[in-house]
Design a protein that fits this description.
homotetramer; alpha/beta; seven-stranded mixed sheet
Chain lengths: 401, 401, 401, 401
Amino acid sequence: MSLAHGRPYLAIPGPSTMPDRVLRAMHRAAPNIYEGEIVDLTATVLADLRRVALSSSHVAIYISNGHGAWEAAIANMFSKGDKALVLATGRFGISWAEHARGMGVEVEMIDFGRRTPADPARLEAALRADTERRIKAVLVTHVDTASSVRNDIAAMRAAIDAVGHPALLAVDCIASLACDEFRFDDWGVDVMIAASQKGLMVPPGLGFVWVSDKAVAASKGSDLATPYWNWHPRLFAEAYYQHFAGTAPTHHLYGLAESLKMLLDEEGLPQVWARHAALARAVWAAFDAWGQGGEFRLNILDPAARSNAVTAARIGNGGADQLRGWCEREAGVTLGIGLGMTEPGAPDAGDYLRVAHMGHVNAHMTLGALAVMEAGLQALSIPHGRGGIAAAAAVLAATTK
Amino acid sequence: MSLAHGRPYLAIPGPSTMPDRVLRAMHRAAPNIYEGEIVDLTATVLADLRRVALSSSHVAIYISNGHGAWEAAIANMFSKGDKALVLATGRFGISWAEHARGMGVEVEMIDFGRRTPADPARLEAALRADTERRIKAVLVTHVDTASSVRNDIAAMRAAIDAVGHPALLAVDCIASLACDEFRFDDWGVDVMIAASQKGLMVPPGLGFVWVSDKAVAASKGSDLATPYWNWHPRLFAEAYYQHFAGTAPTHHLYGLAESLKMLLDEEGLPQVWARHAALARAVWAAFDAWGQGGEFRLNILDPAARSNAVTAARIGNGGADQLRGWCEREAGVTLGIGLGMTEPGAPDAGDYLRVAHMGHVNAHMTLGALAVMEAGLQALSIPHGRGGIAAAAAVLAATTK
Amino acid sequence: MSLAHGRPYLAIPGPSTMPDRVLRAMHRAAPNIYEGEIVDLTATVLADLRRVALSSSHVAIYISNGHGAWEAAIANMFSKGDKALVLATGRFGISWAEHARGMGVEVEMIDFGRRTPADPARLEAALRADTERRIKAVLVTHVDTASSVRNDIAAMRAAIDAVGHPALLAVDCIASLACDEFRFDDWGVDVMIAASQKGLMVPPGLGFVWVSDKAVAASKGSDLATPYWNWHPRLFAEAYYQHFAGTAPTHHLYGLAESLKMLLDEEGLPQVWARHAALARAVWAAFDAWGQGGEFRLNILDPAARSNAVTAARIGNGGADQLRGWCEREAGVTLGIGLGMTEPGAPDAGDYLRVAHMGHVNAHMTLGALAVMEAGLQALSIPHGRGGIAAAAAVLAATTK
Amino acid sequence: MSLAHGRPYLAIPGPSTMPDRVLRAMHRAAPNIYEGEIVDLTATVLADLRRVALSSSHVAIYISNGHGAWEAAIANMFSKGDKALVLATGRFGISWAEHARGMGVEVEMIDFGRRTPADPARLEAALRADTERRIKAVLVTHVDTASSVRNDIAAMRAAIDAVGHPALLAVDCIASLACDEFRFDDWGVDVMIAASQKGLMVPPGLGFVWVSDKAVAASKGSDLATPYWNWHPRLFAEAYYQHFAGTAPTHHLYGLAESLKMLLDEEGLPQVWARHAALARAVWAAFDAWGQGGEFRLNILDPAARSNAVTAARIGNGGADQLRGWCEREAGVTLGIGLGMTEPGAPDAGDYLRVAHMGHVNAHMTLGALAVMEAGLQALSIPHGRGGIAAAAAVLAATTK
């Protein structure tokens, strides 16, 4: 007998749970891709993508995943041999750096480990040391999906400005957009990338790149920009197909239009952020309780450096893998695996897991996942403090008191 | 800000949560209704309906809701002026009696109230008193959806047999089928009715009537059996359309075929029952904890008389309505209203609610609903004992320890 | 090799092709059935059902098929022993009469055969002969789905009025509603029935009964009206569940709301009628051409007596069955079987077929079906006149010239 | 009044009509992307992609459109400054050449115009002239979607072999795969590209590249191969995510698995080709008839050089645009626009259109489209020969005679 039969809950940090309305919007015949409704809908989507990033600048849609969006940003910002400064706070920051290196970009990486955010003082120091202004762009993840560290983007901009360095500020918001507060214009971001399958609640298949006027200007003549990745024809398309360098991603556009309407016109972006913040606090309250006198440990000690979209945790002695297995097998909840949390070369001992609270997620889904985890900790006799789920419920109760 | 944005959870006792696979099976073009796959699929559905009731006899599908299935059973079992004995343990038992009266059947009702099951001794006494053998059938709900009382059907059969009374035993399993254990053959049931939208996990729109050979024989010549309700052509159809007295309910059949496959061939009926039993015990554990020193109270004191599909509870001072409102508005959980729990004529004070745990429901969904309720009790400052959700999690943990 | 692989086209007279939007509207989680959106949506649906019948009176929704709607109308209009006058022009008119007889109604039937409409003079004569005014209602099909005869409803009303007979006029529009012009108020109809799966473009599962004030008054005290069929609580519901005598048909309501919006608010009822009329003329043009010098023959000679929703035809020597088989097997088109077109007791020689042009059907679908039929006639070497599909195309070309 | 209300038919050459089953397979919750069913399903999809190309070699899936697949092939086959020989027979061949130039590849193009296929003699001559063996690959479209020319791939291979030139043979089958016969192994193809939205019947969003062992070897060390386009990790993935350079295109994979099952396991590839061939002949028969004495003209004179997937035609005096408008507005059929059929710089006079007969397409759909076109020609008084649709029907009738 298993208690998993019922609606499964996928709590991995992407792809996230999609609203029924989004899936429904995608269940339709193909449209004409030369004229008609898809053209109008695309214009709306592009406008809404700017709104969701609080950006007044430009945005390009790529048929790709997040790695493709990385490549698009790199291809436009750099020519071969140009230099990037990468601030890494987890596996995905490191991978972005490797991706840039793989394209012929010279990369200087500051690795802040996997449990603390990027330090603006070190960024400032690195830029000051770049007396020849060879660094074309600073690359940083807003939230590293692997470590769940959230970086202070406004502080990075301030550090760049303090030096008066001309480098572009490029931010990976794949894990955070429409979950953690993000302000493209206010924070002085030049390039931001995201993808469809997390806070935007659409299946994997689209990458997005927002581009400031400064970045548009800086990207002219980049010799890495191939016809597919070159953002200029996409940003300033004269014919419809140029938005996508060919055939449009018709069904993803229908889904995305629906999800953006839900986020922006129905719930409202500040409410979306507040919801994610409350659910995240509930998760942390449970994790803190379980951490009293047991193996359970939040990965990020400082709450201010934690994402509202995903939380990484450690349960020693392989407890994380055991718990993941129990939750999926017995209770219908799939938690995320640990990713890049051990030293390179070290064996993965199954000590890390992640729980996502991103996108189409409410009190019921999150509390249910936590209650299942608490049941699993007991069932597996993993040492843990008591009262986790009660503490989480109390956090959410307090939001409406 | 509301924490309800996300996948809503409907915890009312029907319609229940439907599996995605069922909805997907229904999202298709209409078939030919004269020949081909729908004919074969109907044969499979009819066989599986017998399996889900552990019945070796006959079954008719009606395009109707549960009230239609009531009417179908009455129309075939009785002629005008015949007598029925109804054992009522809640609003739905009483309504079935009223329905029979409305069709010209003379009804004797034994009302066991709303918090205790039918007493076989009283049934036996009533049958002994029927020396003229005027009672054609005994009508009883297996589970009354309103009160959540579960009756002991085998005991009812034993009472009838003890008297040697020829009355048919007719059971309403609308709320219980595929949730609470039910054995048509073993328990000597003659007529059983159910509907599509609860344990069978399909949208409302189909009623079912299972019929023993004895009931088939007894029903010949009933003058209430109209062409639509008459079960003979449906049970012994020579042409396909006779199964439905006309056009087949094509899309519901596709959905039902899928849900029966999930229940019978994938999970297995004993496992389905065990899952519902475990989830019910978790609900009761939470309710018991909240009931220590507060307003919260389980409606049925005796666990043996509680359904595994739905649980009714009382929170005085209008607390039930307040809690229902909070859960839906703030957390995405819709609980069931109280139904028929106050004295006739008395105003509904909003003191009752019901939580369903029927059908496509797992540990995540149920624990999530309980955790939301606990958060709501706190948010609303409704006096309640602590530790409800922790107790529920512990119950489920124990099932796999 | 078969040329059927592709989107199959079902050209049987119900269930008809459903719009993707309707199926999409039905692909969703269950709603709360006690309050909220489903309650509002039902009010809209009821209003739109009146609009689609051009009726200012009342309408009841039954979870049933068309036969259930027949039974609902009979149960309310008659008490046991009351008399009905049925005007039969095909299998379905005869069946409705048999249904009434099966409920204890005395039936006088005038059978006009299978190729000509009801004659108002004979109706008038029959009513004049009813000097005791025993006839409670005149029952007539607007379009008989089997024969494709269309009756002149206004003429029937005139005949009744000419006699000054108090009988209700009850019309079966199952095959015609939202295809052939129908005017409940203007034509003095008292009771009209329809079902979901034809012109209304929703899966089978709902029956509808429209009721004039006169019929409401006349139906009070009918002793055939059981709790399920009684239209009074449905027409004048105080609580939501009374509209459906129990649980609402949630998913069908979502689908129906969408289809009514398409018919009434987007295309517009006069345009819907005109479209069906044009497509019907195209079908007849093809059939007329094939009928020159071959086996092919339209069932109804008088175009004024043909339905715009379905056309029956004869191809002797079993040609109809052969053609149906070829079209389905080789070309992806399923035509309707002949129904009730042979004398009772005579063997079905496979000489009849029907092609539907009802509901969600456009020039492409209809011309495609005709072209496939023409290909099939050739492939099977069935003698037929040439130029059928060209004639059909010419008819449609002329509509926009 | 418009006769377009009904199921619209999109006859543009991609995206094509998708089977309901494919859309249904994509209407589901996201899966875990680290383990479980999606991993197994991907293995099946990769095997089936080899089967559909009759290829025993390797295949990579890219989240991209067809232009992305072009770029992937170029990025792996060439280093900057390498030379390509492009055989152009329409707009898409020319665009592929431009794409290669845009990536820094030196391109020699032989332009065969828009109405005739590539001449193997000219290919052979060009290769003989390349005495330094600078040409790394010969690029050719199997079917150019714009002109509907089909090239003889086996003849191209023979020409290369006749010279003994080491160049790779790279073929664009975006428009032809699973429509026109294609044999990767037998025809000695080294690189083949396709996309999801045409013969493979899945929404736009996936590009595919098949790679021979020779091409794998030749591609090692290409300096254009970025991390996203590099096919080595995709072809020889050790971890699941490497197949996609990151997050998998989960929903497209579900759809693709379903469509490949339909093509390969249910219908069978030879039957799929035969069906497309028959439908194409029907289209040509109609076009030939209309071309007798009017403006209508097939673009490709030689039937052996026509694609079975799409047919381009010319109607002078802007007739093509007028007809497209009528068919969409009045009859529910959307035809494809002419693309790249006029001289560069010349104004588009609206003289060209294309009708697709690719993918999920049967006799009903194709004959329906032709019949609608015939009606439109008449309605618009465009001079044309008679009997087009009758001729098309006769072609299809003959296939089963």
